[in-house]
Amino acid sequence: MALPASGTLSLNEIHIEAGGTTATEAGINDADIRGLIGKASGVSMSFSEWYGASAFLTLTAQSNTIVGNSGTSITATTPSFAAGDIALVTIWKLSTNFSAYPTTPAGFTSIGFAAADGSVSNKGGTTYYYHRMRTCYKVLAAGDTSITSSSNGSNNMLSVEVYRPSTAITTVAAQDVASTSSNTINCSASSVATIAFGASGRTTGAPVHTWGAGPTVNQALTFLRAGSYVQGASPSDVTWSSTSLTSGQYRTIFTSGYLEVS
């Protein structure tokens, strides 16, 4: 249970929220008490900084953007963020070059990848189309004002979703990642905050997603749709599915799963 957002706040209340036993010895500089607000040892602190603090990390959608271009790389300006926020990024790419894979942006961790090939025949022969998509994440630093993915492809889409944690993050782990058109995302296996994600891309307009709960964010541009759904402690499973198309050069590719954040 979170601490009150206003009024009188005692060290004993803060100690209990941090997991301590009532009326036992505690100090404002104790690691567990500082951890509620992400403070370093020995720095100046005020009791008002603990208003609303919770031992259970929660996540709030902060900002999002989606961009597209034709070229060998794509860059998005990171939308409104602060150091310590989580950026969830999906890059979709279409090319006639088999080796055109979207790179993982600098400092990001790749958590899902999907690929499919299509072709179309005409009088000039057969043209092959290579569809590629990657989902990745990063706990942002103050200098992460832009996000770039490059390859030797030609058509690109890049989605960014930024989530803000209530306390400093210690661990992020990807779970239950799939590259299928539907997924019962197994968030209930976690006991901490989660971000369920689903993305799909194709060359004939952005696919349609169906979520069993949420989503918190749902954005699309031309050929890419990406969304996510955030839950706090003790999350539930989330069903997600996407429309699909397979015909000639047309293919739909998918990534889904969840991030476990603590």
Task: Describe the structure concisely for a colleague.
This protein is 5% helix and 47% strand. With 262 residues, the protein is mainly β.
What does this structure look like?
The protein folds into two domains: 40 residues, no CATH class; 203 residues, no CATH class. The model has no long low-confidence stretch (mean pLDDT 92). Strands 1-7-3-5-4 form a five-stranded antiparallel sheet, with no helix packed on it. It has 262 residues and is mainly beta. It has two helices and 15 strands. It is 5% helix and 47% strand.
Strand content: over 45%
Helix content: under 10%
Please tally the helical runs, counting DSSP H or I stretches of 4 or more residues. Answer: 2
How many separate domains make up the residues? Answer: 2
| 3D shape | elongated
Q: Biggest sheet, in brief?
A: 5 strands, antiparallel
Structural class: mainly beta
What gap, in angstroms, lies between the N and C termini? 16 Å
Order of helices and strands: HHEEEEEEEEEEEEEEE
Radius of gyration: 22 Å
Uncertain residue ranges: none
Mean pLDDT: 92
Overall number of strands: 15
**Biggest sheet, spatial arrangement of strands:** 1-7-3-5-4
Helix/strand layout:
Elements (H helix, E strand, L loop, with lengths): L10 H7 L13 H5 L23 E12 L2 E5 L8 E10 L13 E14 L2 E15 L6 E5 L4 E11 L6 E7 L3 E4 L7 E10 L6 E3 L5 E5 L2 E8 L6 E5 L9 E10 L1
Antiparallel strand pairs: 1-7, 2-6, 3-5, 3-7, 4-5, 8-15, 9-14, 10-13, 10-15, 11-14, 12-13
